[in-house]
Amino acid sequence: MNELTIKYLCKQYDLRSEVVAFVNRMEDIVGEKFKNLDEIREYNQYKVIGAMQDNRLSSTDFHWTTGYGYGDIGREKVESIFANIFKAEAALVRPAIASGTHALNLALSGILRPGDQLLYITGAPYDTLQKVIGVKGNAGGSLLDYGVLYDEVPLKNNGIDIVGALDSINEKTKLVAIQRSTGYSDRRAITIDEIEEVIQNIKSQHPNVLIMVDNCYGEFLDTREPIEVGADIIAGSLIKNPGGGIALSGGYVAGKEELINMVANRLTAPGLGKDTGLTFGTSRTTLQGLFLAPHVVSEAVKGAFLVAMTYKTLGFNIVPELDDERSDIIQGVELLTEERVSEFCKGIQAASTVDSYVVPEAWDMPGYADRIIMAAGGFIEGSSIELSADGPMREPYYAYYQGGLTYDHCKLGVMKSLNNLYSKNLVNLV
């Protein structure tokens, strides 16, 4: 970083020069890890372009209809491209899917029937999924309300307990679920190799048991996706990785055609399935975001490495560790106090392009058991592929950093977060 840039940063963003110098030193150390990310990005970029070309994407595919949405060729083209990229038989990609939680709920409620068992083998799922299942809260209409059975297998040494998973499968087990990302926990994300190993073990003994992977935050972190290693169905959000910061809203479910049809019947109605439902002209932004996604995800992961290097050097526990294989875009930092989490998130918010002047506060957010603080100043509201950070106000007080459409923006977020902590004497630079 040259002197002109340093002077501008200190003046424009009220950064202490010693903070800028410290982050620059961290960047010099961690930069060697970027080469592997560039190789993954390059492969996935060509894969996305190839899928669009194989499906003969045309400018006319961006047109859309009204009413029921019959013959919405843009919708059909989007879903065919997603299926191609994720190596699925079919995909459901709709702006009407409000979030990753909604996509997962559609998949679970579309497939499971009363008396079927859902088995999570990555411990307790993300907070919002616990309400979908019905194990926390009483929102009404949960899976348990409809007679679906539930069990979970705790992680073992921060990985999947394959023996425990196999022992927990019984004659009622219809679907085994794997949450790839960290969520609000202190574990690293589950890697594709680990997912492959557990799927092979389950399928060898229970070939008829379905396996679903919650793919949120994990798309394009590897050269393979979960369906390529044996998953039957995956689900995710378009305002996370695959939307590239461009998709306005939506989610996706991809997998075996029979299962996707069941999920589509839940989204619309039995007999209508995938044949109805307007895209409201979102096909262009959905596909443009998908085109940018491999590059954007790579930039975000580089930012996560910089966060990890910075706060690890300062003595904080981090998840994942610097040498761990990464399988999502999230970087957890154990900050130990509520004040540090708050100042960290305020720094990320202040680095945002949109709503940088807003001061985030922890609040009782719907779907969560604890007060949550969220820093998110993106072009798309709630877009966690954009620079953002959040965390529950509970011990041991983790802040979870994710996203960043460009590495430079990620770096600004790191500097602003550290500047807040340093200015309040909550950290000492080393």
Task: Give a short overview.
By secondary structure, this protein is of the alpha/beta class.
What does this entry look like structurally?
- The chain has 430 residues and is of the alpha/beta class.
- It has helices spanning 3-12, 17-30, 34-54, 73-85, 100-111, 127-133, 162-168, 192-205, 257-267, 283-313, 338-350, 407-423, and strands spanning 90-94, 117-120, 149-152, 173-179, 210-214, 233-237, 251-255, 317-319, 331-334, 372-376, 388-392, 398-402.
- It has twelve helices and twelve strands.
- The two termini are 20 Å apart.
- Strands 1-7-6-5-4-2-3 form a seven-stranded mixed β-sheet. It has a five-stranded antiparallel β-sheet with strand order 8-9-12-11-10, with helices on one face.
- Helix 5 crosses helix 9.
Topology:
Elements: H1 3-12, H2 17-30, H3 34-54, H4 73-85, E1 90-94, H5 100-111, E2 117-120, H6 127-133, E3 149-152, H7 162-168, E4 173-179, H8 192-205, E5 210-214, E6 233-237, E7 251-255, H9 257-267, H10 283-313, E8 317-319, E9 331-334, H11 338-350, E10 372-376, E11 388-392, E12 398-402, H12 407-423
Kindly report the spatial arrangement of strands forming the biggest sheet.
1-7-6-5-4-2-3
Number of strands: 12
What integer value in Å does the Rg equal? 21 Å
Taken as a percent bin, the fraction of beta residues is 5-15%
Largest sheet: 7 strands, mixed
Mean pLDDT: 96
- Count of helices? 12
Provide the helix percentage: 25-40%
Form type: globular
> Class by helix and strand content?
alpha/beta
The run of helices and strands is HHHHEHEHEHEHEEEHHEEHEEEH
Distance between the amino and carboxyl termini:
20 Å
Contiguous low-pLDDT stretches (5 residues minimum) are: none
